[in-house]
Amino acid sequence: MIAGTAIPEDLHTIGNLDALHAVCERVFVPEPGERLVFGEGPEHARLLLLGEAPGANEAETGRPFVGNSGRLLNKYLQKADILRENAYVTNVIKVRPPGNRKPKTSEVTDALPILLLEIELIDPAIIVCLGSIAVQALVDRKAKITEIRGTWVEKDGIRIMPTYHPSAVFRDEQKRELLKQDIFSAAEALKKLEP
Ligand code: URA
């Protein structure tokens, strides 16, 4: 990784996203010429979309889900009548793993306190976990995405919908349909929330 300096132990003193973003800029070091990708969206969004780690387009722009996966995600959000700008979009890992490799378990463990605080600050009602890294970070270290997807999990009062990562569905029509279904379930649950 990725972690330049150790994650500060007094993270709990951080009370807003700007301050948390500043911590990330100190502790997570992107590859030369790349940018850190912090979450983006409304500070108290009711829906949080959680991905794995930035890809090349994200590391270039400093924004989550702006490449091919992001376009596919946007398409399904639109079909489900969810405005992306109303959702908070972030990743477990905030800098692109070299060569787009899968994040290591130790990297996920290191990044988790920051992610948990980010979630606490947003305080969403619903989280959609996109892919196994997000599901394993938040729900269950041993979860298998093929078994758990589509099933609501409740944690600390937040409803979590595990589903496939958009990059996993490009060449798989069946998975694409399931990702769509799960995003529709999240949209239904969002509609049922108190105004
Ligand atoms: N894949 C992710 O998991 N996150 C992004 O931001 C882009 C692609």
How is this structure best described in words?
By secondary structure, the chain is of the alpha/beta class. It is built from 7 helices and 5 strands. A 5-stranded mixed sheet has the order 2-1-3-5-4, sandwiched between helices. The model has no long low-confidence stretch (mean pLDDT 94). It binds uracil. Uracil binds next to α3.
Order of strands in the sheet with the most strands? Answer: 2-1-3-5-4
Tell me the major beta sheet. 5 strands, mixed
Q: Give the oligomer, counting copies of the same chain as homo and different chains as hetero.
A: single chain
Bound ligand species: uracil
Spans of at least 5 consecutive residues with low confidence: none
Number of strands: 5
Number of helices: 7
Shape estimate = globular
- Percent range of helical residues: 25-40%
Tell me the distance between the termini: 41 Å
Q: What's this model, at a glance?
A:
With 195 residues, the chain is an alpha/beta fold. It has helices spanning 17-27, 56-61, 68-79, 105-122, 132-138, 145-148, 173-191; strands at 47-51, 87-91, 126-130, 153-155, 158-163. Strands 2-1-3-5-4 form a 5-stranded mixed sheet, sandwiched between helices.
In terms of topology, how is this protein built?
Elements: H1 17-27, E1 47-51, H2 56-61, H3 68-79, E2 87-91, H4 105-122, E3 126-130, H5 132-138, H6 145-148, E4 153-155, E5 158-163, H7 173-191
Parallel strand pairs: 1-2, 1-3, 3-5
Antiparallel strand pairs: 4-5
